[in-house]
Amino acid sequence: SKGNEAERAGLKRAKEEQAAAEVRKAERAKLKAAERGVTQLRKQLVDAEKALRTTRSQLGTKLKSTEAQVSSLKGKNEELVAELTAARDALAEYETQLESGRQELVAASADYEGRLAEALRIKQCETWRKMLIRGSIFLKHGRRGKPHKTLVYCDKELRYVYYANIAKLFGTITHSRLDLSAVTEVRHGIKTEVLKRSASAEHVYACFSLIWPDYTLDLEIPYYPKDHADRDRLVLDHRNEWLAAFSWVTGGQVPSDIALSLDSR
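The structure corresponding to this sequence follows.
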């Protein structure tokens, strides 16, 4: 039947999303390795500054010693005067070179961090774009009746969000659409009248809503089986990914708590 076909399509999509999640996890591991490279650069900078302080201290001690000898001889030993001058010049040149090296290292580190941040941003945006176009199966809560399984996805231009009730056993599946540019807010949790009416309080971390001036699209991440390991964490991670993606595509700022939870994974 069409309902079974839709169910199998939903399961297939779920498996694809799980595989995509594993790919994103591997990509994040690579990016974290790059961040460790930045940390190493910073450590080199700290070591260089420590070396500067040590050398300055050593040369300063030598300079003071030479000055004391010159003072005691009262200028009678021209070789000591020449040595003192050379020591001062060497110290100045060394400090100039070390400062130049430090500035180059700081500039290189800042440039690397900037390019890494931009690469992360582009990669994340591309991940969200693919997620939104591919879509997923959610439980859609309505003003009447019980929540039902719904396929939610976006067009390739990310102008509209489409949703279709795939729980119907008979008849044509209708794909409704809403204009993403008119979204005023993306909310997480049970915070709309629709969700307050039909959502279970224990599923608060699985729910989120897209808000229009005259409509709300209220969705819930389908829960994993109760015996599934890390069930609650997986649902929360899944919900936060979609929250971030819809916040991004509607031009809103990704909530700081959601962004932090994504970065920590």
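The beta strands are 136-141, 148-154, 160-165, 175-179, 185-188, 207-212, 215-220.
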